[in-house]
Amino acid sequence: MDHAADAMRTDLMTITRHVLNEQSKFPEARGDLTILLNNIVLGCKFVCSSVSKAGLAKLIGLAGETNVQGEEQKKLDVLSNDVFINALVSSGRTNVLVSEENEDAIFVEPSKRGRYCVVFDPLDGSSNIDCGVSIGTIFGIYMLKEGASGTVEDVLQPGTAMLAAGYCMYGSSCTLVLSTGAGVNGFTLDPSLGEFILTHPDIKIPKKGKIYSVNEGNAKHWDGPTTKYVENAKFPKDGSSPKSLRYIGSMVADVHRTLLYGGIFMYPGDKKSPKGKLRVLYEVFPMSFLVEQAGGQSFTGKQRVSAPTLLLIRVSKFCQLLNCLQSFSQHSCQL
Ligand SMILES: O=P(O)(O)OC[C@H]1O[C@](O)(COP(=O)(O)O)[C@@H](O)[C@@H]1O
Fold first, then answer.
1. pTM here?
2. Does residue 100 belong to any structural domain of this protein?
3. 263: CA distance to ligand 1 center in Å?
4. Sign of CA dihedral 169, 69, 120, 43
5. Do 148 and 155 meet the contact criterion of CB atoms below 8 Å apart?
6. Which of 181, 200, 219 is the last residue in one of the domains?
7. Same domain for 189 and 51?
8. Ligand 1 pocket test: which of 120, 124, 256 has the largest number of ligand atoms within 8 Å of its C-beta?
């Protein structure tokens, strides 16, 4: 009888219990981060159930609106965005929110304000939403700068200033992967309990990976080093076996596989944005935080993504900032 497995099954490590254990190591912790994460988890459970019944609940298809990136919003994009904004505001722990689906930053009204800023992509992998392929939610958490009252400046922080980050993947199972700066852990939603249970403790990216993940359809837009790298992955000059190509087209799913199996995921550029289309603030920074916490690397092709030098610029209108941030995100992660 496998007592360890039995203990695992009866001594349930829920995500709340795990975060409380982690926070108990910090005497100054007041439970605010735990409450905030609990509300994010609630949002993930709601989106998970909506995604799994999308076809039945007529949640497939377009919402008839366009987001700040000029992309047509899917019904599930809008629903997920509303759910997360409400969950984050009602936690009473947030101050400034930045969503992929909103043109401007969201400033929480004073009576409900807290000291955290959350950047998030409510539903990543839009091109896969209507065909039932894995999609996900990505989030990153910052603390208000010392003495700050909550302005755009408080989200203009480098990736290294992030306190916690995570994603929730809505796939064959619903998996939430989280780091609060002390390693990376994966939790699977047990629908019968409605609880995320620890199933992937202390995720460490394998040192060697046999997989490369990139949209080769964009090859003609790539720079020299990227073209050379992918060429070598397919036709290794050192006689080793070629790498396998795996590309789902949902960053959450492609990064999740890379965290567990190793290898490389990158988004070098495409016709529309030759310098890459992944958004630094709520896609690249949170994923880079997780990749580095799991022992991997994340770089732009020229420098570490989360480097403090990457971000601190100030432009007039917030969405202008979003546009120029996009131009920075060339490559996603190097493993
Ligand atoms: O279809 P492409 O050009 O390869 O782009 C896929 C990439 O775009 C994204 O879908 C962008 O994210 P959104 O779906 O949130 O806009 C990533 O998840 C994915 O890695």
1. 0.90
2. yes
3. 19
4. negative
5. no
6. 200
7. yes
8. 124
